[in-house]
Amino acid sequence: MTAEPTNDDDAAWVTIETPFDADRLRRFLEDIKRLYRINSMLEFEELRQTGDREYRLKAKNLSNGRSVETDLEVRRADGGVIVTYSNGLKTSTTFRVDPKPDGNAQLVVTDDYGGTSGEEREARIDEVDKSLVQWGRDLHRYLRLSKRWSAVPGWNFYMRRVWQPMKPSARRICYLLSMITLAEFVVFLMVFSVFWLELDKFLD
Fold first, then answer.
1. Domains of the chain, residue spans
2. Distance between CA 98 and CA 109 in Å, rounded?
């Protein structure tokens, strides 16, 4: 995942390497709620579909400490989708799929602030969404995990029904508990192996 510099103050974007081809990646983009819930910098109070291609989002942006309350309107574009916002400094977010010669595809996520003047953006600089790079990292990690584990029974259900609705802090706690449990299990196996070997020697 790379963050791209820009000569245009109206936009910022990240380019994400993915393990999927263009068709598979475009299908991934169809689930708008999943795209936003993957962002670990958003703590959601509300994210629901209100129309055919319309959504309501209310959340706290942990990257700038601001509350976000806006309607989303989604439309298809060549190679991806564009999400426009009814409120806030940011005008839209574009998710574009770029096929690569090796058969995989890149995902380019662009935040556009072109709906306001440079003076207004400067005056409202504290409203700029600083989560884009982290969002790119989160998407990159999610796609890699999906490629590796999606064929395992129960994985998709867990990610959709359990993991996605979690707050970012709950996800971190869940991850730490999983690592602790795994470490405890490894230690148990080591102790059990030593015990079994010693018992075998004693019986001999």
1. 2-153, 166-204
2. 11
* SS3 label, residue 42: strand
Domain 2-153: give its CATH superfamily.
Answer: START domain (3.30.530.20)
Determine the pLDDT at residue 168.
66
SS (HEC) of 153-165:
CCHHHHHHHHHCC
Contact (Cβ atoms closer than 8 angstroms) between residue 104 and residue 18: yes
Q: Are 73 and 83 in contact (CB under 8 A)?
A: yes
Q: Which helix (H) or strand (E) holds 191?
A: helix 168-203
Distance between CA 113 and CA 108 in Å, rounded? 16
Rounded distance between C-alpha atoms, residue 75 and residue 82, angstroms: 5
pLDDT tens by residue, 55-98: 999 999 999 999 999 999 999 998 899 999 999 999 999 999 99
Q: Report d(CA 84, CA 73) in Å as an integer.
A: 5
Share of the chain residues as helix, strand and coil, in percent rounded to the nearest 5: 40, 30, 30
Q: How far apart are CA 36 and CA 167, in angstroms?
A: 12
pLDDT tens for 94-132 read 999 999 999 999 999 999 998 777 788 788 888 889 999
Q: pTM here?
A: 0.80
